[in-house]
Automatic annotation (TrEMBL):
It holds the Pfam family FtsJ. PANTHER family: RIBOSOMAL RNA METHYLTRANSFERASE, RRNA METHYLTRANSFERASE 2, MITOCHONDRIAL. Belongs to the class I-like SAM-binding methyltransferase superfamily. RNA methyltransferase RlmE family. Keywords: Methyltransferase, rRNA processing, S-adenosyl-L-methionine, Transferase. GO terms for molecular function: rRNA (uridine-2'-O-)-methyltransferase activity. InterPro entries: RNA_methyltr_RlmE, RNA_MeTrfase_FtsJ_dom, rRNA-MeTfrase_E, SAM-dependent_MTases_sf. This is rRNA methyltransferase 2, mitochondrial. The keyword Zinc does not apply. The keyword Membrane does not apply.
Length: 234
């Protein structure tokens, strides 16, 4: 396949040429072009932010400095260095394990502790090669990001309840009822494609005005990752 056809090498070279620390920047750029998730002055929380490519793209979309806004990156790795290219003083990183991060702690990271207008989760399990295990961990990560965003999840009898109940235990205990995503806010979740993704999608369609599944062009051909783009928290 030629570079123009979108090989992995093409996207790697293109991200390098544009000054991004990883090819994943091009995935968020595509989502931003299609859905305009981040607006000038937004408050953005980036979960699983290493090595910092999404911090770069998020900051670029905050607009000029006088518009304000903030990008907070969280990662379990030793504090992630904010990339020098495409980032300014509005970007900072925090070393924390998202799986044990409480909503109160996340809210404290936001401007005036009012929460975030955009939450991005590019978290993915370290691939073990055991398909069912990797899929389950991927869903647990997605569930925790979702719970952090929208607050305590109450499951009603429906065609998605089995999926949600399966992963609810991974988000407890966090007594805080309220999520850290502001009303009208946007959420991006990454999953490894599996049968439970449709359950998450159905649940999110109740909570958000619009939900789309997207496999960005910069995704490696061998990867099973898919992004759920949720717009407009009800």
């Amino acid at each position: 396949m030629s570079a123009a056809g979108g090989t992995a090498d093409f996207f790697y070279r293109e991200s390098q040429r544009l000054g991004y620390v990883a090819r994943s920047a091009l995935k968020l750029i595509q989502m931003q072009k299609q859905h305009r998730l981040i607006t000038p002055g937004a408050a953005v929380l980036d979960l699983g932010c290493a090595p910092g490519a999404w911090l770069q793209v998020a900051c670029q979309n905050l607009g000029p400095l006088e518009k304000g806004g903030v990008v907070v990156g969280v990662d379990v790795k030793q504090k992630v260095k904010v990339p020098s290219a495409h980032c300014d003083s509005r970007v900072r990183t925090v070393c924390a394990d998202v799986m044990t991060l409480m909503k109160q702690q996340a809210r404290a990271m936001s401007p005036q502790e009012r929460g975030f207008s955009v939450i991005l989760s590019d978290m993915c399990p370290r691939i073990s090669g055991i398909k069912t295990r990797d899929e389950a961990i991927s869903c647990e990560l997605g569930m925790h990001a979702l719970s952090l965003a929208i607050g305590k999840i109450k499951v009603k009898e429906s065609d998605y309840s089995d999926t949600i109940e399966k992963y609810l235990s991974s988000t407890e205990p966090d007594p805080d009822e309220d999520g850290v995503l502001r009303r009208g806010g946007n959420l991006v979740l990454k999953f490894l494609e599996n049968e439970d993704v449709s359950g998450f999608s159905k649940f999110c369609k109740v909570k958000f005005k619009k939900v789309s599944l997207l496999r960005p062009k910069a995704t490696r051909p061998s990867s099973r990752e898919i992004y759920m783009v949720c717009e407009g928290l009800r």
